[in-house]
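Notes from the 1:1 (GR / supervisor)

We went over the backlog. Supervisor wanted to see one worked example end to end before approving the batch request, so GR pasted a single chain during the call. The sequence is below; no edits were made to it. Supervisor asked that the structure be written out right there so they could see what the output format looks like.
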Amino acid sequence: MSGEGLGGGTLTGAGAGAGAGAGDPPLSHWVSRDPFNPAEAERMSPAQERFYQASQWQMMWWKFRRHRVALAAAALLGLFYASILISEFLAPYALTTRDPSHIYAPPQRVHFVQDGRLIGPFVYGEHYHLDIVRLQRIYTPDKTKIERIRFFCHGDPYLFWGLVPADRHLFCPARGGTLYLLGTDRLGRDMLSRILYGTRISLTVGLVGIAISFFLGILLGGISGYYGGWIDTVIQRLIEMMRSFPELPLWMALSAALPITWSPILVYFGITLILGMLDWPGLARAVRSKLLALREEDFCTAARLMGAKPSRIIARHLLPSFTSHIIASATLSIPSMILGETALSFLGLGLRPPITSWGVLLNEAQNINVVALYPWLMTPVIPVFLVVLAFNFLGDGLRDAADPYE
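Structure output shown during the call:
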């Protein structure tokens, strides 16, 4: 049986071929009469061509952006790190501004409507009295005093990044009014402003600490994995000695050893140096294990036979082979740096006033009576929780995207 097919093809009977039983109709297939064009047969679709010509970094990005949670975490971290560039502008008050008439003032609620009329963002004025029985300041909103929030306004003067004098803020209280969205502390200082200023210190501690840690981890791990022998033995015994000490007590001991006469900036760099010096062994072990596996590969042997120096082989051939894994490891290590600084400052062994960080702010909320009466002093826990959680989600997404061929 034969017949004309569609598109110039011919419908041809396959006869009683494989799979055809007795009495069954013959199987049919289409045969094209068009001439065979090898170039046309091997031509890929634009999507296929784009995929096969993509670099490893492009494939990582394509896989990473399918991880919605990791993308949201990256956006949140981007906002946090962008805020540290303009902390002074975002904060409604200067870091040292005090209001003795509003000590331990509770957070003020923002309102938009008054008596059915849309007024815009405003807060009510407050007056307080001292509760002699509970020894607590009681603040009561005064609904007859409407204090509108001002935007892009002139407020407390400050030095932008400690260099440029300015007084412009994103939002400010009404003239003669107050604006304490997260309440005040024992000295009448605005908690929101202090958290914004503390973000700069807490987040940069993580970045500087991880830079030190990665320099040492990649250097010593690369030397250990590439050379092996007695050099590997010495470095591995050093790593085992460092990992045998309990981490937090060792941090506390080294932080307590910092001279109390040091300036705040020296204490800051001392804490970051301690955090970085104690976090490199884990990365060094990971780099060593990768190099032990890769140094016997053909591309490494070829580079060695062509006369490449060991430093070039490690930097140009071996480390780029697992750079994606190093980046994923970095995002998972930064939260431990932030938590380390927060824990040390909370215990009074890390950063100290006048430096302001999230740990320093939490240090002022150690008294259980204060926390019970003024719970808004615990609000610095919220950015710590959000940043650590975001870094972990981002690290998971990068780790999944690190091998785009899976």
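Supervisor's comment: DSSP finds 16 helices and eight strands in the chain.
Batch request approved.
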